[in-house]
Design a protein that fits this description.
This is 2-C-methyl-D-erythritol 4-phosphate cytidylyltransferase. The protein has eight helices and eleven strands. The chain has a single domain, classed as Spore Coat Polysaccharide Biosynthesis Protein SpsA, Chain A (Alpha-Beta Complex). With about 230 residues, it is an alpha/beta fold. The strands form three sheets. The protein has a seven-stranded mixed β-sheet, with helices on both faces. A hairpin with a 2-residue loop joins β2 and β3.
Length: about 230
């Protein structure tokens, strides 16, 4: 397997956190984004491109200087949406990269062994994502909140990150999405639009995304209990 790099999108607006940058919130003694960076370094990866809100590059440099001084982590400014931010990360990759891990900066509880499994799956299939089976019944609703259909739960998966791709495939997916004006909510959906397979790799329910203040409470509880390491 060739050189593996990681792109960590951390350029979201944090609107559901009251405007506070969720990536830089203290979570049990570390910044939220620091957990994501450290687990990727443990995989290991050859380097990381951290994509931050435009104008906040120096803030991230100052907050993460204890980590950046010893690691190959580059900070770049993001774009108007997630697709554009990951695209900025792709532009910053050095020559020779063959595989790319895309991992949300706001997912501090991903486990190294699951990431390694996703890398192995992407080496075989071209693209892979961590995911967990849906627990709740999911209904498709139309306008007015009226149920149209109950979806078959046994076929539904809740997708997480990291997502891992062979670099040429991810570049092609981003080029097509940009040309079509398609933004998407994750990078796997961009690859799906090419008609290419994306392999699901079972992750863990503790790999939550910090989106609201309630998520911080759950993440602290998981870290304190050690359940995310089981």
């Amino acid at each position: 397997m060739g050189s593996v790099y990681a792109i960590v999108p951390a350029a979201g607006g944090s609107t559901r956190m009251g405007g506070v940058n969720k990536q830089l919130i203290d979570l049990a003694g570390r910044l939220v984004v620091e957990y994501s960076l450290r687990v990727l370094l443990e995989v290991p990866v050859a380097g990381i491109v951290l994509v931050v809100p435009p104008g906040e590059e120096q803030k991230f440099l100052d907050q993460l200087k204890h980590l950046l001084k010893d690691q190959n982590i580059q900070i770049v400014a993001g774009g108007a949406n997630r697709r554009d931010s990951v695209g900025q990360g792709l532009l910053a990759l050095p020559a020779g990269v063959e595989m790319v891990i895309v991992h949300d900066g706001a997912r501090p509880l991903a486990r190294r062994e699951h990431i390694q499994e996703a890398v192995q799956a992407a080496a075989e299939w071209g693209a892979a994502t961590l995911a967990v089976p849906v627990k709740d019944t999911v209904k498709l609703a139309g306008s007015g909140g009226l149920v149209q259909e109950t979806l078959p739960r046994e076929e539904l998966w809740q997708v997480q990150t990291p997502q891992v791709f062979k670099l040429p495939l991810l570049l092609e997916a981003h080029r097509k999405a940009a040309g079509d004006g398609f933004i998407g909510t994750d990078d796997a959906s961009l690859v799906e639009r090419l008609g290419k397979p994306v392999k699901l790799v079972r992750g863990d329910y503790s790999n939550i995304k910090i989106t609201t203040p309630e998520d911080l409470i759950i993440a602290k509880a998981l870290l304190g209990s050690g359940l995310n390491q089981l």
